Amino acid sequence: AGIGKCVALDLARRNARTILACRSRERGQAAVEEIRAATGNPAVLLRLLDTSSMASVRTFARAVLQEEKRLDLLVNNAGLTGLPFAITPEGLEQTFATNYLGAFLLTNLLLG
């Protein structure tokens, strides 16, 4: 939803292979179908990613590096507010993990 979906829609309109990295399979798949229908671009894909989980970030990055020949653009757009306060299973404050650590780790892993 929001800015990420708008960016993905614009990239798909430009005929780019576009990967939506989403926490929710249901919401992500709905966005993929909507973008494919609006653009006619079948190369819009869903991959699951929870940037608050460093394990999820590592799994996602590993899959992208294995499956994709190249990566031209990365849009780090995940974010949430700090309310209510929560700790991830990895012991990280959830907002900090989601908004900063996950994006930092993902970017660095994808640099190759």
Architecture overview:
- By secondary structure, this protein is mainly alpha-helical.
- The protein has one domain (3-111): 3-Layer(aba) Sandwich (Rossmann fold).
- 52% of the residues lie in helices and 9% in strands.
- The protein contains four helices and two strands.
- Strands 1-2 form a two-stranded parallel ribbon.
- The radius of gyration is 14 Å and the shape is globular.
- The chain starts with a helix and ends with a helix.
Question: Which helices and strands appear, and what pairs or packs with what?
Answer:
Blueprint: H1 2-13, E1 18-22, H2 25-39, E2 44-48, H3 54-67, H4 94-110
Parallel strand pairs: 1-2
What features would you highlight for this structure?
single chain; 112 residues; mainly alpha; Rossmann fold; two-stranded parallel ribbon; 4 helices; 2 strands; globular
Q: Which topology does CATH recognise?
A: Rossmann fold
> Briefly, what CATH class?
Alpha Beta
- Identify the overall geometry: globular
Q: Strand percentage, roughly?
A: 5-15%
Instruction: Indicate how many domains the architecture comprises.
Output: 1
Main β-sheet, in a few words? 2 strands, parallel
Please tally the β strands and state the result: 2
Task: Name the CATH superfamily classification.
Answer: NAD(P)-binding Rossmann-like Domain
Indicate the mean pLDDT. Answer: 96
Provide the structure class.
mainly alpha
Numbering strands along the chain, what is their spatial order in the largest sheet?
1-2
Q: What is the CATH architecture assignment?
A: 3-Layer(aba) Sandwich
Helical amount among residues, as a percent range? 40-55%
Question: pLDDT under 50 segments (min length 5)?
Answer: none
Q: Roughly how many Å is the radius of gyration?
A: 14 Å
Question: Count of helices?
Answer: 4
- The span between the termini is 29 Å
Family: Belongs to the short-chain dehydrogenases/reductases (SDR) family.
Pfam families: adh_short
Keywords: Oxidoreductase
InterPro entries: NAD(P)-bd_dom_sf, SDR_fam
